[in-house]
Amino acid sequence: MTSALTAVTPRLDLHPSIWFVTIGIAVAVLAFDVYWIARNPHRPSTKEVALALSVYVGAAILFGIWLWSYAGAQLAGEYFAGWLTEYSLSVDNLFIFLLIMAKFAVPERLQQFALMVGIVIAIILRGLFIWLGATAINSFSWVFYIFGAFLIWTAWKLIGEGESDDDEYEENAFMRAMEKRFPATKEYQETKLFVHDAGKRLATPLFFVIVALGTTDLLFALDSIPAIYGLTKEPYIVLVANLFALMGLRQLYFLLGGLLKKLVYLSYGLAVLLAFIGVKLLLHALHENELPFINGGEHVNAPEIPIAVSLGAIVVIFGVTTIASVWKSRRDAALASVSQ
After folding, report:
1. Which residues make Cβ contacts (< 8 Å) with residue 143, sequence separation at least 6?
2. Beta strands in the chain (DSSP E)
3. Residue 64 to residue 78: CA distance in whole angstroms
4. Is the predicted pLDDT of residue 219 greater than 50, yes or no?
5. Buried b (16+ CB within 10 A) or exposed e, 289-299
6. Tell me: the pLDDT tens digits for 289-307?
7. Do residues 220 and 61 touch, judged by C-beta distance below 8 A?
8. In sequence order, what are the residues at sequence separation of 6 or more whose Cβ sits closer than 8 angstroms to the Cβ of residue 254?
9. What angle in degrees, to the nearest 10, is found between the helix axes of 173-181 and 205-229?
10. Contacts (Cβ under 8 Å, ≥6 apart) of 29
11. Which helix (DSSP H) or strand (DSSP E) does residue 147 occupy?
12. CA distance 111 to 43
């Protein structure tokens, strides 16, 4: 018997030109950003950051409205849920980015350039992950079991980590190998990644910063790509949601800054979100494979969680996480002032 919750999900039928136009616009925007920042290295003002972030967020919302009019509420809801999830997970990336900048003592005027190039690398690598994910999903329905179990395991690890209080970046094996492979200078040379000294080609510290940022985001993609595929099966929506989330990441870094330290319960919020999407994926896998699901003693197909419920859960989870984090930070600050 088919569950009453089951509904036919609309699919996108896009002309290949739309893919090319989307990727072309993204490449043009990113290329301009990299060129402009390389020519004008500086720490952006709050006004500059807020304006750019408003443009990116506004464009993301307008795209969602267009998708609603073009393909309907279901796919638009999937896009907004995916975009919010990727944006929320990106906030966790910023903690590591701050630690990387501190570890390598990156001058403030060069941080924007390092972030921009690192984000470009991340977009390229995520594009590969999106393609691999789409291929796996189209070929093997059981891959949802793997995605779901992986997200639940990741959620358990995040809960074990507790509050976000790490204060030091630990280099991974890849970064240590890169530092051994490339001889380097000790001083930054503006936005140059390599310089020639006494006939030798040397890497600058900025090269290692960019590699650290790009590879770190790749590790985060191991969580975020399965998570968004738990909300939508459309590779185009996955791509656009990731583009909008990553293209606004540089502005978030400078706008939030020290405020990130106040999100002490972020790990718990991310854990709840990933566990929720993991369960959603497992239910979807059971439904796709038409395995029996017991409901009141009756065997029915496993229900699927509607996208409206997913979108609402995302908003509630991070709303509660943010409010609880701010409350605890203020309480701790008040207790500290009283003790003095």
Report:
1. 136, 137
2. 194-197, 200-203, 292-295, 298-301
3. 9
4. yes
5. eeeeeeeeeee
6. 555 554 554 555 666 777 7
7. no
8. 43, 44, 46, 49, 111, 112
9. 150
10. 247
11. helix 143-161
12. 7
C-alpha 15/C-alpha 34 separation (Å) is 30
pLDDT over threshold 50, residue 167: yes
Cα angle: 123, vertex 155, 314; to 5 degrees = 70
Closest CA to 228 of 311, 128, 139, 117: 311
d(CA 48, CA 251): 9
Separation of CA 92 from chain center: 8
Q: Which two tokens stand for residue 224?
A: 């975020």
Q: CA 273: distance to chain centroid?
A: 13
At how many degrees (to 10) do helices 73-103 and 266-288 cross? 140
DSSP code string of 47-70: HHHHHHHHHHHHHHHHHHHHHHHH
Distance CA 263, CA 260 (A): 5
Q: According to DSSP H, which parts of 192-248 are helical?
A: 205-229, 235-247
Ramachandran sector of residue 82 (left: φ over 0; alpha: ψ -120 to 50; beta: rest):
alpha
Helix and strand tally (H, E) in the chain? 11, 4
CB-based contacts of 44, cutoff 8 Å, min separation 6: 52, 112, 251, 254
| CA neighbours closer than 13 Å in the CB half-sphere of residue 256 | 20
Backbone torsions φ then ψ of 144, nearest 5 degrees: -65, -30
Proportion of the chain above pLDDT 90, given as a percent = 8
Rounded distance between C-alpha atoms, residue 295 and residue 275, angstroms: 22
Average pLDDT over residues 38-48: 81
Q: Report the C-alpha gap between 218 and 96 in whole angstroms.
A: 12
pLDDT at res. 300: 53
d(CA 76, CA 78): 5
Strand, helix or coil for residue 204: coil
- How far apart CA 118 and CA 210 sit, in angstroms, is 5
Average pLDDT of every residue of the chain: 78
